[in-house]
Design goal:
With about 180 residues, the chain is mainly α. The chain is built from 4 helices and no strands. Helices cover about 70% and strands about 0% of the residues. Helix 2 packs antiparallel against helix 3.
Length: about 180
């Protein structure tokens, strides 16, 4: 093939070369259009996706804030409830303690009225001493019952049982119960 045959307008080689050149030009134009469409579609899809993602992030942040606020309100309400219950419990304990003191004082007063003065001395009976011990948290301490002994009677370290008559005859004086 020579150059002169390509320049001849009637030659077949020229027609083939122009046809291939035109086809190549059309192919390049199609590829350019496809590339431009791809870039436009990708940028549009990215923008739409970013907008949806930012809306989703905003909705999630709002939901997190609402959940946090709700949880904080619940915790605050429970703290207020706890403090109220603690105050009510403290008031109830104070009331119960005062009532217990009044009842104990009334019982001691009632027990004191039944005590007769022996030889002009003030003595307290077994009932009064039991109530006094109970008020101090030492138990009733019934003197008529046998004392708890760590060993058998007569052994070393044994505590003899109290005789009911001994306690009731002597009584306990105010000097005996000084605190």
């Amino acid at each position: 093939m020579n150059l002169a045959s390509l320049l001849d307008p009637t030659s077949t080689a020229r027609k083939v070369a122009l046809g291939l050149g035109g086809a190549l030009l059309v192919l390049i134009l199609c590829l350019a259009c496809a590339w431009g469409g791809y870039r436009h579609g990708r940028s549009t899809a990215t923008a739409v996706g970013d907008a949806k993602y930012s809306k989703l992030e905003a909705a999630q942040a709002n939901a997190n804030r609402l959940a946090s606020d709700t949880a904080r309100r619940i915790v605050d309400a429970e703290i207020i409830r706890r403090d109220t219950l603690a105050e009510e419990l403290a008031a109830a304990r104070t009331t119960i303690a005062e009532q217990g003191k009044k009842i104990t004082n009334r019982r001691i007063s009632n027990a004191s009225h039944s005590v007769a003065a022996v030889d002009g001395r003030c003595t307290f009976g077994a009932e009064w001493v039991g109530l006094y011990n109970e008020a101090w948290g030492f138990g009733h301490g019934d003197p008529a019952s046998p004392a708890a002994a760590p060993g058998a009677v007569g052994e070393a370290g044994a505590i003899p049982t109290a005789q009911a008559g001994e306690f009731r005859q002597g009584g306990v004086t105010p000097e005996d119960i000084q605190v």
